[in-house]
Amino acid sequence: MNIEIWSVGKENEPFIEQGIQHYFHKIKPYTNIELHILQVPKKLATADAEKSKQIEEELILKKLQTHHYLLLLDEKGKMLTSPQWAKEYQQLMNRGVKTLVLLIGGAYGVSDIVKKKANATWSLSNLVFPHQLVRLILAEQVYRTYSILNNSPYHHS
Prior knowledge:
- The protein starts with a strand and ends in an 8-residue tail after the last helix.
- The chain is about 45% helix and about 20% strand.
- The protein has 5 helices and 5 strands; from the N terminus they run E-H-E-H-E-H-E-H-E-H.
């Protein structure tokens, strides 16, 4: 199963990018993983929450393909432990999911249409983090998931 992390927002700071690439390198023996940053053109950027979500919705839906399994990350999503994440990932692989898309929405969240398109909604934490940091945390969590599934000593139960 290929993994794509989609994140609405701006490019990563160098220290964040370095961390993400560190985990992507560790994930490479297990699967292909990519980060796609969905940037709203500056001329369309707005402080209006609903308008922002609508613009971001268009970017997301334009990129979404039929072979994608869309997993939305949202603070109101299902809370899972790392072993539970691994179990859910394994079930997706067993179901033959070709590409898992982990979506990090914009500053105001995602539109109701994107929420309805999502196959599942998970939460990383009850805390709120900056988007760039979420990308790094998510990269680490994906590595942790594959470590659990492959009985690596990285994750200690």
